[in-house]
Amino acid sequence: MNNKDNQVAQKDTQEPGHLERTRTRPVFAPHVDIKESEGELTVYADIPGVPEEKVDIMVEKGILTIRAEVPDPKEVNRGFSRMVEEYATGDYERAFALSDEVDQDGIRASVRNGVLEIHLPKAGPAKARKIEIAGD
Question: Which residue ranges form the domains of the chain, and what is each CATH number?
Fold first, then answer.
């Protein structure tokens, strides 16, 4: 494998946090709490200022990725005559590796009051079943 092919292979295997971004805004890792119960894991992520339609949650190759885009405060018309930014605004991104214990097809999420709640149901134990033999 030549050097160029090696560089392409390295780019494909980088973690989501090392991706190049097209937006010039800062990206923050949201603060997260994870709670485990008998049947599921629940992830609580702080994403203040993000409307539900700007949250993107993906599961690919065992990686759960959260991306949330905060609207630019200058674009949101709130009727103020003057606005002073007292803190930096930016988007949110965080990724988690999922174990085989998580039923990826049953994941569900909701956003309320700036908190993203993701429910990761645990996969049930594999059930024994008889395999039928197909005849000619």
Answer: 24-74+83-121 (2.60.40.790)
